[in-house]
Amino acid sequence: MSNFAVVTATSAEYFYFAQGLILSLKERPETADIPICVFDLGLNDEQLRWLADVVQHVRKVEWECDFPGRDELPEHFKNLVARPHIPRYFPEYEIVMWMDADTWVQRPETLDLFRRGASNKGFAVVPEVHPCYAGCLNRSSALRELAYKSYETAFGAEVASKYQSNAIINTGVWAMHRDSPLRPLWIENLKNALQRTHYFMVEEMSFSYALYDNLDKFFPEYVQLLPATCNWMCHQALPMFDEASGLFVAPNLPHDPINVVHRTSDELKGRGKVTLRTVQGNTHASSLEYRNGEYSRQKIAFAGWQAKDSDWAARG
């Protein structure tokens, strides 16, 4: 995967999220050699020293376009605006895989799925669709209202009415070839939407709108859709825990293992724990962090270190 890199971003406050993501890659032999790139959203010296041991690039992000009120926005908003422009920041790589800092990789083979999808079609993405997710059988009014508000705020009522019932394409985990024909439309949509709003879902809705407004042109030839287990949204449905395998799994039969855990639940942002059901009929208290979030610079600051089986089994 020499032409492929994983990209994430983190501030000092949420650095422990990014540590979990990075270690979930570096501690597995299948992904240990994949380059990792990080957007610095206000890291301190100690955090930068930790990163220097384990990632290939740490770079500051810039404002990619001008729009009203941008100078009053927090640093992390730059990251939202910059996501379609990642190839400019890391031109060393033909294919980049974006992963939010609150994600981590449970099954390393999923990275090859994203890489192959982006290589073959330009984009590999995961729609927020699964039998366990809220509103699967009867899309709830709350979900429709959220989608309508997101589209309407960014693009107006006509667009909102047209696409409010479509699945949202989550932009917390995706892979993109730098020459994807969908990328320029995403950039243009985002630039236009930012003239109207600073809504937190603006870049996600800009991507979804770019795809849905050109669906006949781009799908399926230029977009690879991957299953929900490749970007499991914990606010949509908490996983179950399989005591036999030590893996987080989908809560419905046949309990497919989750490839990427995305800790979107508000209950987990403060490093709290939730009670999960187990496949075996018990309960399991977990923060859904990688290896319980017990990270240290000393543990990874020398070449060749790999997690012991006991470390790996103790996660969450």
List keywords for this structure.
Spore Coat Polysaccharide Biosynthesis Protein SpsA, Chain A; 2 domains; seven-stranded mixed sheet; three-stranded mixed sheet; 14 strands; disordered C terminus
Question: What is the CATH architecture descriptor of the largest domain?
Answer: Alpha-Beta Complex
pLDDT < 50 runs, ≥5 residues: 295-316
Helix content: 25-40%
Strand content: 15-25%
Listing every helix as H and every strand as E from the N terminus to the C terminus, the arrangement reads: EHEHEHHEEHEHHEHHHEEEEEEEHH
Q: What name goes with the CATH superfamily of the largest domain?
A: Spore Coat Polysaccharide Biosynthesis Protein SpsA, Chain A
Computed over alpha carbons, the radius of gyration is 19 Å
Distance between the termini: 29 Å
Mean pLDDT: 88
**Widest sheet, order of strands:** 3-2-1-4-7-6-8
Q: Give me the secondary-structure category.
A: alpha/beta
Tally of individual domains? 2
- Inertia-based shape: globular
Here the CATH topology of the largest domain equals Spore Coat Polysaccharide Biosynthesis Protein SpsA, Chain A
- What's the number of helices? 12
Could you describe the largest sheet, including whether it forms a barrel? 7 strands, mixed
Summarize the structure.
The chain has 316 residues and is an alpha/beta fold. The chain has twelve helices and 14 strands.
What does this structure look like?
The protein has 316 residues and is an alpha/beta fold. It folds into two domains: 4-137 and 167-229, Spore Coat Polysaccharide Biosynthesis Protein SpsA, Chain A; 230-313, no CATH class. It contains twelve helices and 14 strands. The chain has helices spanning 15-26, 45-52, 76-82, 86-89, 110-121, 141-155, 157-163, 182-194, 202-212, 215-218, 297-300, 309-313; strands spanning 4-10, 36-40, 57-60, 95-99, 103-105, 123-127, 169-177, 224-225, 232-233, 240-242, 247-249, 260-262, 274-277, 283-286. The strands form four sheets. The chain has a seven-stranded mixed sheet, sandwiched between helices. The chain has a three-stranded mixed sheet with strand order 5-12-9. Helix 6 (141-155) crosses helix 9 (202-212) and helix 8 packs across helix 9 (202-212). The longest helix is centred in the middle third of the chain and has 15 residues, at 141-155. 42% of the residues are buried. Mean pLDDT is 88; it is low at 295-316.
